[in-house]
Design goal:
The chain is an alpha/beta fold and 572 residues long. Among the domains are: 236 residues, FAD/NAD(P)-binding domain, CATH 3.50.50; 115 residues, Glutaredoxin, CATH 3.40.30.120. The protein contains 15 helices and 26 strands. The strands form five sheets. Strands 1, 2, 8, 9, 10, 11, 17 and 18 form an eight-stranded mixed beta sheet that branches. It has an eight-stranded mixed beta sheet with strand order 6-5-13-14-15-12-16-19, sandwiched between helices. The protein has a five-stranded mixed beta sheet with strand order 24-23-22-25-26. Strand 5 and strand 6 form a beta hairpin. Helix 3 packs across helix 4 and helix 9 runs antiparallel to helix 10. The longest helix is centred in the middle third of the chain and has 27 residues.
Length: 572
Amino acid sequence: MSINYQTLSFDYRPCAEQSGPDVAEQAVHPVIVVGAGPVGLATAIDLAQQDVPVVLVDDDCSLSTGSRAICFSKRSLDIFDRLGCGQRMVDKGISWNVGKVFLKDELVYTFNLQPEAGHHRPAFINLQQYYVEGFLLERAQQMPNLEIRWKSKVVGVQQHGTPGTSGACEAGVTLTVETPDGQYPLRGRYVVAADGSRSPMRKLMGLDSKGVTFKDRFLIADVKMEADFPTERWFWFDPPFHPNQSVLLHRQPDNVWRIDFQLGWDADPVLERTPERVIPRVRALLGPDAKFELEWVSVYTFSCSRMERFRHGNVLFAGDSAHGVSPFGARGANSGVQDAENLAWKLAMVLDGRASHVLLDTYASEREFAADENIRNSTRSTDFITPKSPVSRVFRDAVLKLSRQHPFARQLANSGRLSVPAVLRDSPLNTADRERFDGAMVPGASCVDAPVQLAGQSAWLLQQLGQQFTGVLFCDEQGVNPAMRAALEALRAGPIPLKLVVVARGNVQVAAVDDMRVVHDTEGLARQRYDATHGTFYLVRPDQHVCARWRQLDAGAVGQALKRALCVEGTA
């Protein structure tokens, strides 16, 4: 039975704190997440999976309406896999890797975002945001330590206790929450503000975002129709059916197609949303005899902006509340989901006493760096798509014309550089390479997938990584020698739990250390993508980012790298 996630409504229920001031005073939750959108739900699920009790509050009682964010990247799908709902996303979504760029009615060039085989997930899926929220919510409802409170609006924020070096307050935060039954105080050790671009939390704390608002308007039309367009991303510059502007076409599930029409800054946003204005635009693209229905229409402007700092004491901002970009390149929701995965494991480590609150400063610094990278790329895309002067327009059109035959020009053409995860090269959690490595898996990079065999069955490397620190040892026909085995035993017995995975070349049989997982790199892609030789060892963070690697396993060096990755004093 198909669920219409746009019409779901969730009941408000009184909570324990409303039963009296004594209960409210005594109850201090480890983490409160504000906002039940994709970022808030992902953060809450990730924490709950790491045995952190979470309260999630939202001022509404429904999911989003309209498609909104629709492009979810391979990295987001990898994260959703770890959260237990990735397969549902892929099964429902429309997978795609290919994009095409047109100038007027002529194909300029085609690009493939994932030209090589051997990846579990496609480069992108298109899936309406209400499905993403619905699947995440159903996963959240399975978690016994995750409580969701609907119709619970935060109207006050107070931090208290003794501030630390980064403003951390030992006693935490008290939120004033307004409900149909009145207000009550909600206390938490930490609060994650994932309450969207207009962020009431940000306003309550007297904070703001700074950046640039682009003077252009775009119309989104979600159109339901039977069509024979391929499952690709098509972008037109100056098409004959919408001259002097741009148009973007995407396919979504349920025979729904997303069409974005550039309107210009002078367009009337109210008038342009009316069927009388939308239908002729759609018909000009599809043809006079096309049969379609309008499912959702919106007119938007956009900004590239961010908060100066994402951490304010024990309140941490994530997703659109912390940063915003233009929609070109699908960087908004994907970046927010990456915020969630970065933050959740760090909060879990701090609350468990394995790291000091200083680790949370690296959430801010790493994701501020990622936000700057996204804003930079998004701004460049927007400037190319919407040139601000006649000279810029001439340059853009010349680049597009050259792109028909010259690959160098295609590097300059920009219809929206699509989202890729930031490589956190300068993170203080990394341990620098001591030996030469080639390839993309540098410290700070998110791990890439590869097909493997586990107990004779097909599996994927990323399924073995994440949720806690993981050590990955590559070995050839020589197998795991006594020195390696002793080092692995020492790491397994160390103060910081370390999951151990051996990636054996081909079908090499390896005698495993207790609790150690052995997978077989039968196609050699894992070895190739990680530039591994016999004895190569990777230390991977709980969010599947590389934090250190060595050509030969050294338990002492790994121990020091673990301390560095947790901001523990005493690292060399």
